[in-house]
Amino acid sequence: PPLLLGWCSALSAAGVVLPVAWNEQGQFEHALSMPPGHHAEACVVLQPGMTVAWQFSGSAALAFNIHHHVGKEVIYVNRLPAAVVASGSFVPTSAQEYCWMWTNPSRAAVTLNLRLNRKAD
Predict the structure, then answer these.
(1) Cα Rg of the chain, angstroms
(2) DSSP secondary structure string, 57-117?
(3) What is the pLDDT confidence band of residue 121, given thresholds at 50, 70 and 90?
(4) β-bridge partners, 72
(5) Of 121, 66, 71, 73, whose CA–CA distance to 98 is shortest?
(6) Is-contact 102 60, C-beta < 8 A?
(7) Which three-class secondary structure state does DSSP give residue 44?
(8) How far apart are the C-alpha atoms of 87 and 4, rounded to whole Å?
(9) If DSSP codes are grouped into helix, strand and coil, which group holds residue 32?
């Protein structure tokens, strides 16, 4: 039925945005449970020359990306189609808001633990 189809589409678009608040050591850590089909993003404005070391782990595989927006276009800096654990570092080339995003493609809730560590050059 059309009503059910609309409900599923709305559910799959559900998610949470985590505003990044750096602690005194320049770190941001968060843990959350992501329902099936949901996403979470940690977004922050960065300046060129900053380095952000990132790492995450999930209780099951998650789709992951780092992106920013130019108008309505999404520019992907990094993409992993499925990862339980991953880490890396990111150096922005322009001053703007960047988002680390995870999507739970599974049929069960997944626990996500993430850490961002900001280092100025």
Answers:
(1) 15
(2) EEEEEEEEEEEEEETTEEEEEEEEEEEEEEEEEE--SSSEEEEEEEE--SSS-EEEEEEEE
(3) low
(4) none
(5) 66
(6) no
(7) strand
(8) 38
(9) strand
Q: Which run of H or of E encompasses 2?
A: helix 2-12
Beta-bridge partners for 73: 70
pLDDT of residue 7 exceeding 90: no
Q: Which CA distances in Å does 71 have to 11, 38, 68?
A: 25, 24, 10
Residues in the chain: 121
Phi-psi region of 26 (alpha: psi -120 to 50; beta: other; left: phi over 0): left
Secondary structure letter of residue 40 according to DSSP: E
pLDDT tens for residues 34-84? 999 999 999 999 999 899 999 999 999 999 999 999 999 999 999 999 999
